[in-house]
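[Meeting: bench + compute handoff]

Bench side (C.D.) handed over the final construct sequence. Compute side (W.E.) agreed to return the predicted structure before the next meeting so the bench team could plan truncations. Sequence as handed over:
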Amino acid sequence: MYHYIVPQRPRKLPVSRARLATVLRAGKEVISIELASKALHTDRPRASQTLSRWQRQGWLRRVGPGLYAPVPLDLADSEQVVADPWVLVPALFGESYLGGWTAAHHWELTEQLFKDTLVFTRRRIVKTRVTAQGVTFVLKHAPAKHLLFGLKTVWRGTTKVAISDPARTVIDILAAPELGGGIDHVAECLTAYLKSKDANRELLIRYGERLANGAVFKRLGFLAETLLRDQPLIDACRTRLTQGYARLDSSLPSARLVTRWKLWVPIHWKGTVR
């Protein structure tokens, strides 16, 4: 007499769990109401209610207005469930890019690690500092035309994140030294860039022209002359000086005017780069 083992059919997930799995497959790192609405073929109000219910049940964690992240089992009791905060940037801030000190560290223009993450965004900024998942994002408005050049795409998991390339990073922090950690740190980043194998002086100049910020060439020329002794940069910047005066660093008291660069600098400032 033969005994046969009848294979059991795989157990079907409960409807609610199957719906959750559908949304998780579609959303990966970050789930929005719009994404859930499309994945579940329902309207926004119902999708929003569903996401809120899953949050109460512990499957999701709210990371921003209308935005949720899946909760890994090993982080179920933790407030922070997103391992890489960069994946939040496109969802939280829309058309944007990582820049300033954040990009400088990414491209190894500095070893200094900043606690906050700097984001340039097209969105109207109500708060300049936003905290999500335990990470503070410092926001700087960028007009649409400034998002058309000098950006790279990096993949973080399945999320595409834009970041300023090395040359664009240098130009951005020359335009606003406070976004690079102050002029001393900006000078260090500039020096590191010019010593790198990817250094491109023509690209720096081209980006400076597109940014259309006259202070960039005043600061770049001054640093090229006083710290770097870089004649090609000195010459390129001198021919691009605009009217008016700028300060080397608006956060520093500047009482000495360097007329050839139309730049106010601190009386005893010599910089820290050798």
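W.E. noted at the follow-up: Confidence is low (pLDDT under 50) at residues 1-6, 74-78. C.D. will use this when planning the next construct.
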